[in-house]
Amino acid sequence: MGKPGGVFTSSATQHGGQETTILTAWTVLAHHGMVIVGLPYAFQGQMGVEEVKGGSPYGASTIAGGDGSRQPSEADLAGARFQGEHIARIAMKLKG
């Protein structure tokens, strides 16, 4: 209780329900009394349309392809790192 938590996800397609998956997982975090931490717009890597990429303010994500052949892009990996570091910073603040 009172600990930060976030959700990362992967899907087979661009419209594979990444945001829905993250939002659904948030209910579990809430049931455990966790502070929900997403991927804020401070991470600019989730912006733009120059390439296919995952990520939203709800959390870091990637698109793996139906057979898992696509690897996370550098932007996807940077989003996951940013979110993890963001969660760690919030944990330190909550620790007091």
What do these coordinates show?
- This protein is of the alpha/beta class and about 100 residues long.
- The chain has a domain of about 45 residues.
- The protein is built from two helices and four strands; from the N terminus they run ββαββα.
- Strands 1-3 form a two-stranded parallel sheet. A two-stranded parallel sheet has the order 2-4.
- It is globular.
- The model has no long low-confidence stretch (mean pLDDT about 95).
Keywords:
single chain, 96 residues, alpha/beta, two-stranded parallel sheet, 2 helices
Summarize the topology.
Blueprint: E1 4-5, E2 9-11, H1 18-31, E3 35-36, E4 61-63, H2 74-95
Parallel strand pairs: 1-3, 2-4
Computed CA radius of gyration, to the nearest angstrom = 14 Å
Mean pLDDT: 93
Structure classification: alpha/beta
Spatial strand sequence of the major β-sheet: 1-3
Number of helices: 2
Shape: globular
β content, as a range? 5-15%
Q: Fraction of residues in helices?
A: 25-40%
Q: Give the distance, in angstroms, between the N- and C-terminal Cα atoms.
A: 15 Å
- Largest beta-sheet details: 2 strands, parallel
How many runs of DSSP E, i.e. beta strands? 4
Sequence of secondary-structure elements: EEHEEH
Uncertain regions spanning at least 5 consecutive residues:
none
